[in-house]
Amino acid sequence: MVATSTDTSCRPQSLPNDVLLHIFSYVVDLRSVVSQVKQERSREASLDLYCALREEPPWLSAGKALACCACVCRSWRDALKGDGVQRSVAWALACRLHSCFTEDAGFVTGLAPDRCAGLETETAYRNEFRDRVWWYFTALEAISNSLCWPNKVDGVVAQFCANPAHAESAIRAVKAQADAVNCMSEEVLADFGLTTVPVGAAYWGKRALYYLRLKRAEAAFARFTEDGEREREALHRELDAVQGGAGDLPFWKAMHRQVCLPASERHIEQGATALASVQELQLAGVLVTESLDLLSLELDRRLRIMAAAKRGEALDPEAGKGYRESISDYKEELTDEEQIACLNSVMFNEKPTNGYAMKTLLDDIRASAYSRDGPALQRDLSEKGTDCLCEGWRGLGLRGNDLNYYDPRNSRIDCVLGLITERDGVFLRKDDVNYGNPILLAIVYAAVGRRAGVPVRMVNAPMHFMVAVGEDCFIDVFLGGKVLSGADMMARIRFTEDRHLRSSAKPSEVNRRLCYNLIAFFHRESDYENELPCLRLALTCKPNDMEMLLRQANVDAIMDNYDRAIDSLARAESLSANTEAQGAIRRVTQHFRYAKASYLKQLSQTRLRPADGSLLFYVGQIIWHKRYNYRGVITGWDLKCEADVECIRQMGVDKLPRGRDQPFYKVLVCCRDRPSAQCTYVAQENILVEADASRQPRLGQITHPEVGKHFESYKTRGVGGRHYFPNDMVRILYPEG
């Protein structure tokens, strides 16, 4: 029997009392579950590292989450008021933790109060808890031990993709715990009695999340492409019949069926969201979807207000009533220009001056009729046009970024929408203008319009992406929604046939062009780390793109991903019909094979310290540069200068007192001393160990984005400046430091 409750704020929904009691009593047995999972893991150190990250074991975290559930579930709360010491202690713990409950309590299990609602049996809870604990230790082991080895990355990512939702939750849990410790100053660490900072878990946690997000984005791009092609094939005949004069279905209705009904077309933003989620790992794609849904609700209201005003009625409809279901009730009453005016008001009108939270978006930009006098509204609309209604409405304030057109943020949908996340929820930026490039503005415009039933089609014009509504209304979203006629469009662009203006670009075409914009920017800036995912996603849309295959091979080789580079070249060679081009590709492939062999040799070559003591410093030592006065940490060394001739000339190595014949050290420079992330190659005579630099106080950790790539931990109580301890891969290369 399910207990009932009059408490409307109960979350999760009330569960059977006996189940609730069993769940809480099960907390005392969670230790055995964790131990069982731990024994199944290949590394016994997993739980030890976990305990280094947090002072409490995972079974206690689960107990905290359950106790917080007790505070919001009345049936459980009532059950805990019974007799028994255990129940009294549990209720006291629940009350104490409720006031300070955060996501932290559900780190291991992921079972925050709102997630427990669907677990209606003890068995379901046990299975869910065990799965989450298993994934937690799987992620912890991969982040701690596997991802630092390049040859293990693909296998780890494949394992994550078996259950990407649980894997991402577990990765975030490990990363959040490591980040929390990394953010502490040494004074705070001392207060907590901690001496170890897991810098490796923070770095590889971020990389693991990146790898998983990229894999999921590739799968999403492939799905959008396949689903879109299938849906368009089923619908394009209808539109062709209308355009050829063979059908009696109006153009707008045929276009509505083509771009508003199929999910891949209505949610045209999905590709842009997947791409943004790779670039911004904190972004949750559902936030973008919810934002666009809210905006489309407001557009639906404005369309109804406009239609009512034309009839001489003063209508102030409730948002969401009849949403998308009765589009035909008022669509025929509105011209294309009137629909565009309403949509433009949502997209381009000024934002409220004080900004707004997404949860109150509809209230903050809500559009209402200005008069209850219906005939007066009708008269104003007839005499003054749509401006009498639309000018006073608030909107997103979108703008084309003509001052910094190639800024990559113009191609990120979260930036164009102005989404930011804070502790209390999701907000839109208050002060900044929401800038974008033509294609991202077009995607947002179409996504909002199509959700509300306005058949916005995407016009893939050369050099300038645009949108259109109806047969002869084209909108330049980069210029704030300026409306052009078909004749104006033909004069501005290089389309040779009118049919290109009357069709809508496929989702795969939109996604591919979005990727091309970012590829061009990142390639120009030599930002290969960000260019590579864009190349992979572009090839997901069009696998046989020869130019992108060759460019991806080049970037992969630069990033030391030689296997992927060779695979891309093999595919490019199979696609080429030119014998000379095939020969050139084979020569490059051979060069990559030699480079791969050299790279693998470097990774497997153990370097022992010379017995004569000529090598003074160790991997992991924090040092000062005598000449340039910056701090850094040593990640590797050579017994003599191994740089090429040009680098030796630029660095002035031969002008040093000891020249080339002295040890040289690879050093990550602290970003507090040099703003950009730099890696330098420093002669031994220019190094001073931080512990011996009496003129400077010890300043703690080195801030550099790649510290965690080489080291697994930082010790606050290092010896002789050796505060950083290498990961497994670096230890094999430099076993003696």
Give an account of the 3D structure.
By secondary structure, this protein is α+β, with helices and mostly antiparallel strands. The strands form 5 sheets. A 5-stranded antiparallel beta sheet has the order 13-12-11-10-14, with no helix packed on it. A 4-stranded antiparallel beta sheet has the order 6-7-8-9, with helices on both faces. Strands 1-15-16 form a 3-stranded antiparallel beta sheet. Helix 7 (122-146) packs across helix 9, helix 11 packs antiparallel against helix 14 and helix 26 (528-541) packs antiparallel against helix 27 (546-558). It is elongated. The chain starts with 16 loop residues before the first helix and ends with a helix. Residues 1-20, 26-31, 41-60, 83-122, 320-328, 422-426 and 693-697 have low confidence and may be disordered.
Morphology call? elongated
- Beta-sheet strand percentage? 5-15%
Structural class: alpha+beta
Specify the biggest β-sheet. Answer: 5 strands, antiparallel
Q: What's the helical proportion of residues? A: 40-55%
CA-atom Rg in angstroms: 31 Å
Overall pLDDT metric: 75
List the total number of helices.
32
What's the end-to-end separation, in Å?
A: 65 Å
List low-pLDDT spans.
1-20, 26-31, 41-60, 83-122, 320-328, 422-426, 693-697
Sheet with the most strands: spatial strand order: 13-12-11-10-14
Give the strand tally. Answer: 16
Question: Strands, helices and their partners?
Answer:
Elements: H1 17-26, H2 30-40, H3 45-53, H4 58-72, H5 74-79, H6 85-98, H7 122-146, H8 153-160, H9 164-182, H10 186-191, E1 196-197, H11 199-243, H12 251-259, H13 263-266, H14 270-279, H15 285-310, H16 327-331, H17 336-348, H18 361-364, H19 374-384, H20 387-390, E2 398-400, H21 413-417, E3 419-422, E4 425-428, E5 434-436, H22 438-451, E6 456-459, E7 466-469, E8 473-476, E9 482-484, H23 486-492, H24 499-502, H25 507-524, H26 528-541, H27 546-558, H28 562-575, H29 579-604, E10 622-625, E11 631-638, H30 645-651, E12 664-669, E13 679-683, E14 687-689, H31 707-710, E15 711-719, E16 722-726, H32 728-733
Parallel strand pairs: 2-5
Antiparallel strand pairs: 1-15, 3-4, 6-7, 7-8, 8-9, 10-11, 10-14, 11-12, 12-13, 15-16
Helix pairs in contact: 2-7, 3-7, 4-6, 7-9, 7-11, 9-11, 11-12, 11-14, 11-26, 15-17, 15-22, 25-26, 26-27, 27-28, 28-29
